[in-house]
Amino acid sequence: MTATMTVTPQTTPSPSPGSTRRRNGRRRREGLTGWLFMLPFAVLFVFVFLIPIIVSVQSSMFAQVPAGDGLYGGGELEDRFVGFDNFVTAASSGAFWVGMGRVVLYAAFQIPVMIVGALALALLLDSFLVRRPGLFRMAYFLPYAIPGVIAAMIWLYLYTPEVSPFMPFLPEGTDLMAPGTMLLSMANMTTWTYTGYNMLIFLAALQAVPRELYEAARLDGATGWQIATRIKIPLVRNAALLAVLLSIIGTIQLFNEPVVMESANSWMGLDYTPMMLTYNSLMGTVSPSGTGIASAYSLLMAVIAGVLAIVYALVQRRKGDV
Amino acid sequence: MSTATPTRADRRAAARAASAADLPPRTLRPSPTAKGFGMVALVAAAVYFLAPVLWVLVAATKNNRDLTNSFGFWFAEWNLGANYDSLMGWTQGMFWRWVGNSIFYSLSAGVIGTLFAVMAGYAIAKFAFPGKKLAVGVIMAGLLLPVAILTVPLYVEFHAMGLTDTAWAVIIPSAVSPFGVFLGMVYAQASVPDELLEAARIDGAGEARIFFTIVLRLLAPAMVTIFLFIFVATWNNFLLPLMMLSSADLKPVTLGLFGMVSYFAPDKGAVMLGALLGVVPLIVLFFSLQRYWRSGLAAGAVKG
Amino acid sequence: MTSRKRFARSAIAVTVTAISAFGLAACSAGSGADESAAEGPVEIAYLHRLPDGEGMTPVSEIVERWNEEHPDIRVTATKFDGAASDMILKLETDVKAGSAPCLAQVGYSEVPQLYVKGLLEDVAGEAEQYAGDFSAGAYGMMKVGDAVVGLPQDTGPLVYFYNEAEFEKLGLDVPATLADVTADSAVAAAAGKYVTAFTPDEALNWLSAQSAAAGDTWFSTEGDAWSVDAEGEGSQAVSAFWQQLLDTKQTLATERWGEAFTKALNDGALIGHIGAAWEAGFLLDSLDGTPAEGQWRVAQLPDFGAGEMTGPDGGSGVAVTKGCEHPAEAMEFNAWFNTQIDDLASQGLVVAAAGTPETSEKMLRQFGGQDVLAELATASANLSPTFSYAPGFASLTKMNETAAEVVAGSAEVADIFATGQSSAVAALEDLGLPVAE
To answer: Are C215 and C385 within 8 A, CB to CB?
Structure first.
């Protein structure tokens, strides 16, 4: 890395704005410097994202069909080009859209609760209520450190009446893993895991704000509430936008939680969320299966996530402009 | 990395900023009522986040029977030793080696990934270069993709390069964080003033030197966030090492734990103990990073 | 500021050292193995997912013994830590990439599917000489049409587990027929106990095995096409039996792998269970040290209407994967490994090889001194000779969903088999295989 950096040409300021040749030279040098800074990431990105994506797109155009005849199709599969057939199958799959509906419903209440909660905690920690906010920060962030599948297992136990330490205190007959409550229960799992993480992002944004700003506002007679709503929240707008975007993308891919819950609630099925459907298509445990259809599902999911994210960003931008 | 030695004034400023975090200026202290309500909310939230962890702590000392037959938040027959033995038995004595592997993968991916991501983010935020729009678009699209699905083509690719069943097969994919670039870009736009860069250039500093001595310092809070993000994502990733690694020597701890869980009737107390011991390094890391959050705070104060 | 710098520097130092140490170790290990494969002994990789738990003879130890005795065929065993379906994905990817282990553990119900996918090698020629070492039924599970893809390892015949002390207390005899189970259920229910559990999460394998025990064959051939019959007379008998128990609430309707099952077992509400033979290895673990320890026994599955016959619920074999360079040597090890019956039994397996391994101390203790493995071997011998799987069987998990609806009261047991029928036909069609209407 250091070697790369030392060959970076120095950009000298151009004192005479009239000279176009010098400006061009400067622009070229700036472009080169920019690319040199981009390079290490760009190289890895090509290997880890671009090539596999291209492979995925390619595989979504193929179906695996038996190479021969007979009961076992000759004991060999071959790839057959099917164009956009896999996408047609994916887009007309009832299970896919039902799963997508669940995920959207889930996102519609889980994300706001989590973001508002995280913001509230960040504001509280940033308002000098406690002398050592570090301990609280740790406590809220701790769940994020627990691997997703393990966290889901823990909650599965906590929702199981026979094991749960708090279910005995709930009204008799409460079922936290019934068709009507499952989404809420999973929303709680996600909220538990990611609230602290989002809080940390907000807190980082808040703490980058010079304190003198608040002191000045205070001297002008602003209350703590006004400081929070008029100064701090607008300042973390970008961070909040980012957090919501990432949550939307993450939720579309909801996987660990439903997989673990399904292991104890077979009524959910292997296609409860689109990501589960995709994975199980790949695994051959739902039908139709195969890498082609699985790639088609995942590309469709990426498109939907992209559309949702762009719509959200546009709506936010318009609001921000007003 | 940095060649500038901190002056005494620097240090004094940092100390002042650090103490400011502990003791708020009189004008910013909340009213007693606000403080009361705030404390209740903070403590309630702490209970919500910690109770399941406490349950795991207790569960790690129990046998399978007591897990279903005794109160969850209190200890029953002390079975910690047996659970530890069972954990070691299941992992054939490899448990701590696997924890070490996890630390190594997460640390390497975190350090490499953070550096590359802020470099790229800084480039996007502060330089005009050809193809920038396209690069940003492609990276952001990478953010949208269900990454797990890429694991299979990734395996085929890494196999072709002869990298499967090596540490690189886990570290390289984990170190690529489009989110890190995004965050680095946002932070660089917000907290690296153009005037500062211009001033440094006028002083004759090279781009590399400007980046490593000035920019990295300003981006510290973003870097800690990105580092944590990559570290934890690497630590928690299951599918990637599952596909990429086959030698027992190279496995991360999550694989071993999931291996235990995926059998019939696992020794749940041992699984809980494993989960708990597997999280300890992360907790230690977070505690030690606390201080750097504070220095990030100081950086923000200096900037103002 | 200084502290951050120190952190950055030390972190980088640690990383660099670590990368070089681990990276080099990994590289040298990799290249070393490759070189020896080129000249020295034949290298066979074997991917398994046996538990290798506490107190078991680890696979690596068994393999080590082989390697000492056979310097010309070096076997490396690797334990796969994920679920069975993850392992299939891994195999599929490995075969495509040309890096598959020669030998891999596969479930019987998955064998036809994997063969269709082109992941398994036909080793009928090599397998033939070892056929005599294994029970005929289990050997048949590794056959796909005329091809043989490996050797069987363990079997999962359905058997009946029951608490002898509780049965005596209630004046119950061990049920010999389905009618007996129904009668026992009524008596036990009056005392607040259950002699069976209905487990929706196991519906696919568990109910199809019962259907087999009742004499049904789900998959047969009509000319050159598959014929599916998941709703035959046997399935109807099984449906009627469970429907009656569920309607009268005389069976414990709960997930097999949920905590409610363990809880019922622990507090003595569940005193009988129709389960797979391999459950003997851990079913009673949570009763250790309680008064119920040593009270349970295992018996043959009650007569489901086809005499002394039981059905296959699980079990797996070790198959040779496509592209294996040394199938003969791989099969030589395969045959040896799967006849190490005492070691395999220590892993909790009901071995497919001929001979009865010695019942372990643990089983003797948990089953009151009963020779459990002899009983299970009898069950293994009684496996339905006609029931076999077809490609796509693993994707019939929709049956589990319907079974969960049955427990919730929104479907009938017969619907589970109807789901099985329609999903099986759909799965075969999706695979592009011929299905007779």
So the answer is: no
Question: Taking phi first (over 0 means left), then psi (-120 to 50 degrees means alpha), and beta for anything else, what does residue C255 get?
Answer: beta
Backbone angles phi and psi of C79, in degrees to 5:
-90, 130
In the three-class reduction of DSSP (H, G, I as helix; E, B as strand; rest coil), residue A261 is classed as helix
Query: pLDDT category, A27, cuts 50, 70, 90?
Result: confident
Hey, where are the domains in chain C?
36-155+314-346, 157-313+370-430
**Rounded to whole angstroms, how far apart are CA atoms C266 and C256?**
14
Q: Compute the distance between CA of residue C385 and CA of residue C387 in angstroms, rounded to an integer.
A: 6
The CATH architecture that domain A94-321 belongs to is Orthogonal Bundle (1.10)
- Each domain of chain B, given as residue ranges in start order, spans 91-262
User: What is the domain partition of chain A in residue ranges?
Assistant: 94-321
Quote the strand ranges of C96-187, DSSP E: 103-107, 143-144, 147-148, 150-163
The minimum CA-CA distance between B246 and chain A, rounded to whole Å, is 19
- Which amino acid is present at B94? M
User: Is the bond leading into C291 cis (omega within 30 degrees of zero)?
Assistant: no
Secondary structure (DSSP) of A98-156: HHHHHHHHHHHHHHHHHHHHHHHHHHHHTTTSSS-HHHHHHHHHGGGGS-HHHHHHHHH
Backbone phi, then psi, for A178, in 5-degree steps? -95, 165
Closest CA to C113 of A37, B224, A71: A71
| B residues 24-83 lying closer than 8 A (beta carbon) to C | 63-65, 68-69
pLDDT in tens for each of the 304 residues of chain B? Answer: 334 444 444 444 444 444 444 455 555 666 777 788 888 999 999 999 999 988 888 888 887 777 777 777 778 778 888 888 888 877 778 889 999 999 999 999 999 999 999 999 999 999 998 888 898 888 887 877 767 668 878 888 888 888 988 999 999 999 999 988 988 888 888 888 999 999 999 988 889 899 998 899 888 878 887 898 899 889 888 778 888 888 888 989 888 777 777 666 677 788 888 888 888 888 788 777 766 655 444 333 333 2
Top residue of B111, B114, B214, B257 to mutate, by most chain C CBs within 10 Å, is: B111
B254 touches chain A (CB under 8 A): yes
C112–A264 C-beta distance less than 8 A: no
Interface check B262 vs C, CB under 8 A: yes
Exposure string of B233-270, with b = 16+ CB inside 10 Å and e = fewer, is: bbbbbbbbbbbbbbebebbbbbbbbbbbbbbebbbbbb
ipTM for the complex shown: 0.81
Measured between CA atoms, the residue of chain A closest to residue B203 is A12
CB-based burial label for B34 (10 Å; 0-12, 13-18, 19+): middle
> CA torsion sign, A293 to C322 to B170 to A57?
negative
**Contact call for C401 and A266, based on CB within 8 A:** yes
User: Among the CATH numbers 3.40.1090.10, 3.20.20.370, 1.10.10.10, 1.10.3720.10, which is that of B91-262?
Assistant: 1.10.3720.10
Query: How far apart (Å, rounded) are the C-alpha atoms in residues C187 and C170?
Result: 7
- What is the length of chain C? 437
In chain B the first and final C-alpha atoms are separated, in Å, by 25
Q: Hey, what amino acid is at C248?
A: T
For tokens 């589970």, name the residue.
C416
Two tokens, residue B27: 């004008």
Comparing A157-171, C124-138, C383-397, the range with the smallest average pLDDT is: A157-171
The second-level CATH assignment, the architecture, of C157-313+370-430 is 3-Layer(aba) Sandwich (3.40)
**Same fold flag, C36-155+314-346 and C157-313+370-430:** yes
Taking domain C36-155+314-346, whether its CATH number is 3.90.1150.10 is answered by no
Nearest 5 degrees, angle CA C254-CA C256-CA C257?
115
